[in-house]
Amino acid sequence: MTQLIENLLSIDEANAVLNALRPDGNEIEYGQYYALTNDHSLVRLPRLMAFQASMNSSGDFPWYRCTMSSVPQNKINYMSWTPTVQKLKDFIEQRTGETWNLAHIIYYKDGEDSMGMHSDTMLDLASGSKIAVVSFGSTRQLDLLKKQKSTSDGPSQIKFDLPGNSLFLLDEETNKHYVHGIKKTRKNQIEDRIAIVFRHVTTFKTDNGKFYGRGSAFLTKQDIIQRETQRKIFQYIFSFLLTVFIIWLFPIFSMNWLKLVTGGIFWLFISMVFGQIEQIINNYINKVNNERLQKLCQMKNFQIWDQTNMRHFLKYS
Fold first, then answer.
1. CA 112, CA 127: separation in Å to the nearest integer?
2. Among 90, 156, 242, 281, which has the highest number of CB atoms less than 10 A from its own CB?
3. pLDDT tens per residue across span 190-208
4. Which domains are present in the chain?
């Protein structure tokens, strides 16, 4: 069930949070991000965003895979918690008994800024966890529309006013059966609003772009390291055997010193070629994965998807 808690903080505390998190408050560095249309055109998202999260014991930040994260032009970087967001996170965790490790901080400058209808990608979310939306500033209306193939007994449409200084909790079942969004209003009728969207994410991303956790093929970072070690050993052994074969094949390399020099050169060259081939393959795989993720994000806005069939669709299971 969804839940709306108003008057979350005192009036003075709420005003202080709003002023601290505004772009001119010098605590949050907002960025402009983009989305891809069906014809692969790049469009500006009508809002500014920033990202914060808790680093795990392996030194990696959680990673929430959504349509925006699959757009190459979006350079998303998760930062450690700033003081105001950290205090707010601790407060609502104590208030609700939930835990969150990632936040999208969204700035709506006026009524022209909006959020399109969508449902959150459940691929990386902790099972049974709730999504928290903490609002400061102007009141905006959150619309929820039932998905075309929903089997829920709930109403076809739900509307919530999200006033400033409020906490909205979106549960897993509602997110699964409904899309939600914030429509545009007349520009001069609405002042600015800040929304902090907290999620509990169980997928993490390494510095070299590898995923591990419940939403990926690797459960731990150690699994990735082990696979990388095995791959490198295979690459070096294959390069060595190929080098030996080339030297044996051509009699010109009969002299011992020439064998040693040319063998080292061949081994280095072959290893570099393998590295380049691997990079090309990885770039292609990432491109295919991003395209599949974008397709999945479009499909989940009409159909019912859970973590299992998302992983199956993306071949992460």
1. 34
2. 242
3. 899 999 999 999 999 998 8
4. 3-205 (2.60.120.590), 221-314 (no CATH)
